[in-house]
Amino acid sequence: MSILYDASRTALYTPERHETRFERGRLYTPTQWSIEASRLAYCRAEQSPQDEEDLAAALAQAGFGEPRLFVDAATFAFGALHAGDGSALIAFRGTQPDEIRHLATNLQAQQLEWHESGGRVHAGFAKAARGVLPQVREWLAGEGRPRSRLVLAGHSLGAALATLAASVLRPELLVTLGSPRVGDTDFVATLAGLDIVRLVDGCDVVTQVPPALSFYAHAGAVTYITCVTGECVDDPAPAMIEADRLEGRARYAAEHAWKPGAVLLRELADHAPINYARAFF
Question: Is there a domain that residue 3 lies in?
Answer without folding.
Answer: no
